[in-house]
Fold this sequence. Notes:
By secondary structure, the protein is α/β, with parallel strands linked by helices. It contains 14 helices and 24 strands. It has helices at about 55-60, 65-100, 105-115, 150-160, 225-235, 250-260, 295-305, 310-330, 340-350, 360-370, 400-410, 420-425, 465-475, 500-515, and strands spanning about 5, 115, 140-145, 170-180, 185-190, 195-200, 200, 210, 210-215, 245, 260-265, 270, 285, 290-295, 350-355, 380-385, 385-390, 395-400, 445-450, 480-485, 490-495, 520-525, 530-535, 570-575. An 8-stranded mixed beta sheet has the order 1-2-15-10-3-4-5-16, sandwiched between helices. A 5-stranded mixed beta sheet has the order 20-19-23-21-22, with helices on one face. A 4-stranded mixed beta sheet has the order 9-6-18-17.
Amino acid sequence: xxxxxxxxxxxxxxxxxxxxxxxxxxxxxxxxxxxxxxxxxxxxxxxxxxxxxxxxxxxxxxxxxxxxxxxxxxxxxxxxxxxxxxxxxxxxxxxxxxxxxxxxxxxxxxxxxxxxxxxxxxxxxxxxxxxxxxxxxxxxxxxxxxxxxxxxxxxxxxxxxxxxxxxxxxxxxxxxxxxxxxxxxxxxxxxxxxxxxxxxxxxxxxxxxxxxxxxxxxxxxxxxxxxxxxxxxxxxxxxxxxxxxxxxxxxxxxxxxxxxxxxxxxxxxxxxxxxxxxxxxxxxxxxxxxxxxxxxxxxxxxxxxxxxxxxxxxxxxxxxxxxxxxxxxxxxxxxxxxxxxxxxxxxxxxxxxxxxxxxxxxxxxxxxxxxxxxxxxxxxxxxxxxxxxxxxxxxxxxxxxxxxxxxxxxxxxxxxxxxxxxxxxxxxxxxxxxxxxxxxxxxxxxxxxxxxxxxxxxxxxxxxxxxxxxxxxxxxxxxxxxxxxxxxxxxxxxxxxxxxxxxxxxxxxxxxxxxxxxxxxxxxxxxxxxxxxxxxxxxxxxxxxxxxxxxxxxxxxxxxxxxxxxxxxxxxxxxxx
Length: 577
């Protein structure tokens, strides 16, 4: 199990020599990464690996026929992209070395700034998506805003000095999804007080937290650190998340100041302060119109909830801020201007905490190069729709199942959230083939469980028996219907993690027989055999009929791109008092 400790808190460790810094490592080149990841996907598909270096020097691996030449062209294009990233990272290093005056010591200093921790805090069983025809996969990054009060700066900005010793909550959570072809991106939020299942996690000290079904998602950070928040998102969405990035109050202020302010807009003047009915407030005070926020005002904007009316609208304001920052960085040529690079590198390495795969400047820069070419008109921001949580209606929220399932399916299938996605002509992705062929369908058992009550509606009686009989008819003679129920929204097939490639191959063969997507298959460390849970998304029929995802077809209320924020009447300000 990957742990979610965040190393480097309060201290700066010595930095390896240049040979160890990974300057020429490609973050996304299969098989050649400097550090093997303990929690990497269990299988690597053939499409994701090219010939080895020695083989490329010999000219092997391509063949001489038409098929070989086509494969060579695809490999050359992919290798070219990798070399661009690798050499861009090297160029960044050289720019810093050549202009900083302190040379290598400055690069060492930047690496020493970086605090990192394990990618995952628990087991989700989710695997990386199959690559497209060019061997590329989507990029998913979880962005976390922590409400830590662990030092004086954060207490001064966030208040609550009595919370110094309290474990931080994940005040902001956004999933940044960049398409496999890097042509579009989306930022998807779940409001912080939304109740979701939080899986078992382990913190940096080895303390284990039991799974829970009835706590808000912001508490995931307290139950194992940022790695647990990542595992919670993976378990909930079925989307493999490559990295996490976390920032606290002071980091937000530093980054806003570094870019020179971020443009945001309100339809009327706003003052988010205490009143007779609601105590507290962010303190945001801003006249009508568009303004560039920086310093403490940037933090106030991101934390404002009462004046914008709800957690959903707060997420909309946060997305406006993210859009504004991307626009500002692109307008500043931040990826090509040496001076801007150095300033951003200094601020970002100090402000951000990152998952271990990003713990060098070169790897962080490789990551930024993956993002710089996404056009702003192809960046979609959305918030998963929620309703009040019945048990605590004035405090907590819960996801709208149909809307959440639709959005998560679009992310899993790499379907663009903007309507331009249809025009882009996305190509279908090949199915990842397991390393080991599946065993004969009648040679292993399959337990089928009725989970159709997962949408809080009455279960469809007899679903486990119907699906088990359908599998028996396709040769899975040991398929059996369980008498137990396990309500869940989306249909899932689990197999024992200890069974490795053979277990996954067998589970995939069950998925194929039931017409389920490969993304429905997950490893489970606690599983004793292959189990198919029929979710509330499969209430009828012997085979699964997956709804077609259409680019830009977001659920009502999810798309939250706004030119200016509405202000709740109680908090409107005339700009005078």
